Amino acid sequence: MSRSSIIVAPGPWDPEPWRKEFEAASDGRPVHVWPKDRARVDNGPYVICAWKADPKIFDEFPAPRAVFSLGAGVDHLQGLRTSRDIPVVRVVDPDLTMRMVEYVTFAVLYLHRQIGTYQAEQRRHAWRPMIQPAASRVRVGIMGVGVLGEACAKTLAQIGLDVAGWARTPRDASPFPVFAGQDGFDEFLQRTDILVSLLPDTPDTAGLVGRNVFARLARDGSLGGPSFVSAGRGKTVVEDELVEALRSGMLTGAVLDVFNVEPLPSDSPLWAMENVLITPHVAADSDPEVIVAQIMRDVERLEKGEPLSNTVDMKRGY
Ligand code: NAP
């Protein structure tokens, strides 16, 4: 099969590091940054490598051989959901996975070790030791135990936390308990002190995490109440209900990396909440060098007629 040109559409990101990496790795295939280089794209075959690009790209270039997401999520390719049967490939990479493991481990330990409270006490020059429960007495529940969630679960279990997961489909075997679907949701929530969401944004998960979920978390835990880590996708959370839960004490605290609207608007009440730690969607960044290498391996497979590595079921949404 003839070689494809590479159309790179990194949306809000600086395109130049991506152009540089693709040019270095493309083995002579033409590389075009969209929309800047749109006029230079010839009539030959092409692939699109995108991150939060304007969906108009698919009007202008409607027949890519494949679409590669420049990150692990594919919700930004919604515009493609209604269109044809083009393979969509996402990033699955040990570097990105490790970054998420770091973030979730940090966030869970931040809540488990009550660091937010100690930071506030430090500002008041107050020395007030609190009871510190053993890790084995803290139950972590991870919503979404795919590539990222499973890696996080294994690391948290190694530290001694009592970890369970929740997924769409049941597991035959898993090193930690996995509850599945709506049937297993209640039991999963009722045994959870620290809830971690690593869910993708799909039609089924949009707005899934709100009052109705927070109210069902464990109240008998050793940390004095449940808390929440959000590092999957902001649209899965009902943010008003999250704020209300944090104000009312239904949740004792939260570590949040993803939001309904990003950047988080400056008038969001979340910014000023003492029991909230905010990071600006940096839990697991994509490293252009690593990701371009993975994409180019798949472009070669595509051109040889071999199966691609991490294709996404766009009907399912992840
Ligand atoms: P993945 O391998 O596709 O795993 C997704 C998990 O979610 C699976 O366990 C899946 O269940 C579960 N799931 C999906 N729909 C569900 C539903 N309706 N009910 C219950 N469980 C459901 O994805 P991943 O690589 O782990 O990535 C997860 C998400 O993290 C990405 O989609 C992205 O949005 C986000 N992310 C965030 C950052 C950041 O910097 N904050 C960075 C990278 C990724 P099954 O196992 O049954 O399929």
Describe the structure in your own words.
By secondary structure, the chain is of the alpha/beta class. Helices cover 32% and strands 15% of the residues. It is built from ten helices and twelve strands. The protein has a seven-stranded parallel β-sheet. It has a five-stranded parallel β-sheet with strand order 2-1-3-4-5, covered by helices on one side.
Provide the fold topology:
Elements: E1 5-9, H1 15-25, E2 31-33, E3 46-50, H2 56-60, E4 67-69, H3 78-81, E5 88-89, H4 94-112, H5 115-123, E6 139-143, H6 147-159, E7 162-167, E8 178-180, H7 181-190, E9 194-197, H8 211-214, E10 227-230, H9 239-248, E11 253-256, E12 276-278, H10 288-304
Parallel strand pairs: 1-2, 1-3, 3-4, 4-5, 6-7, 6-9, 7-8, 9-10, 10-11, 11-12
Helix pairs in contact: 1-10, 4-6
Bound molecules: NADP nicotinamide-adenine-dinucleotide phosphate.
Notable traits:
binds NADP nicotinamide-adenine-dinucleotide phosphate, 318 residues, five-stranded parallel beta sheet, seven-stranded parallel beta sheet, alpha/beta, elongated, 12 strands, 15% strand
